[in-house]
Amino acid sequence: MEVQLGMPVLVKEDHCWGEEAAKILLAEFNLGCDVQHTEHVYRVYVTTFLGFGGNFARQRYEDLVLNETLNKNRLLGQRTGLSPDNPFLDPCLPVGLTDVVERNSQVLHFRGKGDWATCRTMLSPLLARSNTSQASLNGIYQSPIDFNNSEFYGFSEFFYCTEDVLRIGGRYHGPTFAKAAQDYCGMTWSVLAQRFKNGLFSSHADEHRLKYQCFKSAWMYEVLHEGFHFPYDYPNLQTAQLVYDREVQWTLGAILYKTRFLPLRDLRQGGVRQAHGSWFRLSFVYNHYLFFACTLVVLLAIVLYLLRIHRIHRRQTRASAPLDLLWIEQVVPMIGVQVGP
């Protein structure tokens, strides 16, 4: 089984969690040319996690820190984060990196602490997990995955997070990734900026990536292992931009989902047949003018063609008339010679 994190996933229904809940998240795809091509029929688990991408997750994290810090300041009479001299020490930013967050005229000053383990702990509530074992992010149902018989690919943020800065793209290994992310977070911002100037990172990396790589690596790690329940030593996950020389992104999954009814389907199903009949009637009502216009164009083309043939015939007739007269003039003298004295 080959799937992309963030794209539809082939699954089995879980009767313990709730058969109805599972059916809501299942869609049937027929990628064949005919409904009889059952070997191309797939039952796919489809859902989305809005607000759980790397950039939006950072905004949610900043909102959480700002609200908690300001509330704590009011209760304890502190001024943490209210000035650059007394910033909030953010474990999710590289050591020494300063940042400012402003929400509704409220400002909070950040300074990086570079503590990747603490960052992971602070991000855990943002996963919004439930107590149900068959739920993933935000309490959404996730069918069991046979990790012993599956192969996964990580695209988009997963690829950038492992490749652009850490330079460990390819086959994912949890402990290796965690060590590289921890080492990166522990570096001072001045050292990272100098390495960036020296071209030691990917050409696709920019300053925004360097600033939030510590946060995004911790977030991706938590989402993968605590949200989607991937084993920490899972070996069959690799980063990629192409699969069999084809670019695969979440947009491809969305297109497949939106066009799942385009291949031929069994029109004997009542709902489909009714929808098809309604579409046909509406098409006839609103397109009969177009039908008459096309008929008129065809008739006009036939008339013009016949007129053209008629003109060509007339020109040929006029051109052949002098030849006939000449033939007559040549024949008549010959007859006169034969009947003369």
Secondary structure elements and their pairing?
Elements: E1 2-4, E2 9-10, H1 19-24, E3 26-30, E4 41-45, H2 54-76, E5 88-90, E6 98-103, E7 106-112, H3 116-123, E8 151-154, H4 157-163, H5 174-186, H6 189-197, H7 207-227, E9 237-239, E10 242-243, E11 246-247, H8 250-258, H9 270-339
Helix pairs in contact: 2-7, 3-7, 4-7, 5-7
Description:
With 341 residues, the protein is an alpha/beta fold. The chain has a domain of 223 residues: Nucleotidyltransferase, domain 5 (2-Layer Sandwich). Helix content is 49%, strand content 12%. The protein has nine helices and eleven strands. It is elongated and about 110 Å long.
Report helical residue fraction.
40-55%
**Helix and strand element order:** EEHEEHEEEHEHHHHEEEHH
Number of helices: 9
Sheet-strand content, in percent, reads: 5-15%
Number of strands: 11
Q: Class of one domain in CATH?
A: Alpha Beta
CATH architecture level-2 label of one domain = 2-Layer Sandwich
Strand arrangement, largest sheet? 1-8-9
Short description:
With 341 residues, this protein is an alpha/beta fold. It has helices spanning 19-24, 54-76, 116-123, 157-163, 174-186, 189-197, 207-227, 250-258, 270-339; strands at residues 2-4, 9-10, 26-30, 41-45, 88-90, 98-103, 106-112, 151-154, 237-239, 242-243, 246-247. Strand 10 and strand 11 form a beta hairpin.
